[in-house]
TrEMBL record:
Residues 39-80 form the GRF-type domain. Keywords: Metal-binding, Zinc, Zinc-finger. It comes from the Eukaryota. It holds the Pfam family Zn_ribbon_GRF. This is GRF-type domain-containing protein. Residues 1-28 are annotated as: Disordered. InterPro entries: Znf_GRF. Residues 1-17 have a biased composition (Polar residues). One of its GO terms (molecular function) is zinc ion binding.
Length: 111
């Protein structure tokens, strides 16, 4: 699925905006008064998180993509991030990933 500016976005288990519930509905968002709730294919939209380098951690709502089909419904939930945030967040996520790999390797060695 791509966003309005061509970034690839994906859904994972941490995509919700409340309590790590995958695929939170847009009406679960307390400030969602200006968000659309029904996509162009007639389904209730879901809120997901973009993990692209251009929009790391930025939430958006769109088609739930049932059966692998996504209509063109898309709207950002969060405002655009500044350039510095777009540089820092991916670097921090990369560092976290490296630490997780090191911990897993150490645990595997211990066992």
């Amino acid at each position: 699925m791509t966003s309005e500016n061509g970034d690839w976005v994906h859904s994972s288990g941490s995509d919700s905006i409340h309590g790590n519930r995958p695929g939170a509905r847009a009406n679960d968002y307390s400030s969602a008064d200006n968000l659309f709730r029904i996509c162009t294919c007639g389904k209730e939209v879901v809120v997901r998180t973009s993990w692209t380098s251009k929009n790391p951690g930025r939430r958006f709502c769109g088609c739930p993509g049932d059966e692998g089909f996504y209509c063109s419904s898309f709207q950002w939930v969060d405002p655009a991030m500044c350039r510095r945030s777009k540089e820092v967040i991916p670097a921090l996520l990369n560092r976290l990933s490296q630490y997780e790999i090191a911990v897993k390797s150490a645990n595997d060695w211990i066992e």
